Amino acid sequence: MGEEINENLINACNGPADATSVEETSEAVESGVKYYTLEEIRVHNMCNDTWLIIHDNIYDITGFLEEHPGGEEVLLEQAGADATESFEDVGHSTDAREMLQQYFIGELHMDDRKKEPVKEAHSTNSGESSSWTVWLIPAVAAVVVGVMYRFYLFEHKSS
């Protein structure tokens, strides 16, 4: 079913592109950066109007769809949504990351950004304690086996 939707989007892209625009209600701050909400971004998911979120930045990649080396399908699958994970999983080059800047149009609104989980102090301590057990337990086991082997040899030589 998902493939049918993607094929419909691609077929619609091959047709004539209309110049309809969606009225924007984005916020602008003193720095000149526009902030867009997820609701505003979600409507930009068509081949003639394609926006992506990558690392909380918004990119209008409509003009790049046909140039994308991986094909326009992969971009349309992520259109109007957060594509950060997909972008990083592919392992884009430095050139691709620099090229992305020319499509920058704004940032994701602060209220819609994902909250980073706060790491607690005891979780790092447990990580450190597990690292010393990784080598201590095998070392103790090796010493015990070595002592038993020596004891076994010593008992058989003396008899």
What would your notes on this structure say?
Mean pLDDT is 76; it is low at 1-11 and 16-25. Strands 1-2-6-5-4-3 form a six-stranded mixed β-sheet. The longest helix has 38 residues, at 121-158. 13% of the residues are buried. Helix 1 packs across helix 3 (72-78). The protein is α+β, with helices and mostly antiparallel strands and 159 residues long. The protein has helices at 2-14, 38-42, 72-78, 84-90, 94-100, 121-158, and strands spanning 27-28, 34-36, 45-46, 49-54, 57-60, 104-108.
Low-confidence stretches: 1-11, 16-25
Spatially, the strands of the biggest sheet line up as: 1-2-6-5-4-3
C-alpha Rg (nearest Å): 28 Å
What portion of residues belong to β-strands? Answer: 5-15%
Q: Could you state the order of secondary-structure elements as H and E?
A: HEEHEEEHHHEH
Q: First CA to last CA: what distance?
A: 79 Å
Q: Give the overall pLDDT as a whole number.
A: 76
Annotation keywords:
single chain; alpha+beta; 159 residues; six-stranded mixed β-sheet
Topology overview:
Elements: H1 2-14, E1 27-28, E2 34-36, H2 38-42, E3 45-46, E4 49-54, E5 57-60, H3 72-78, H4 84-90, H5 94-100, E6 104-108, H6 121-158
Parallel strand pairs: 2-6
Antiparallel strand pairs: 1-2, 3-4, 4-5, 5-6
Helix pairs in contact: 1-3
Short recap of the structure:
The chain has helices spanning 2-14, 38-42, 72-78, 84-90, 94-100, 121-158, and strands at residues 27-28, 34-36, 45-46, 49-54, 57-60, 104-108.
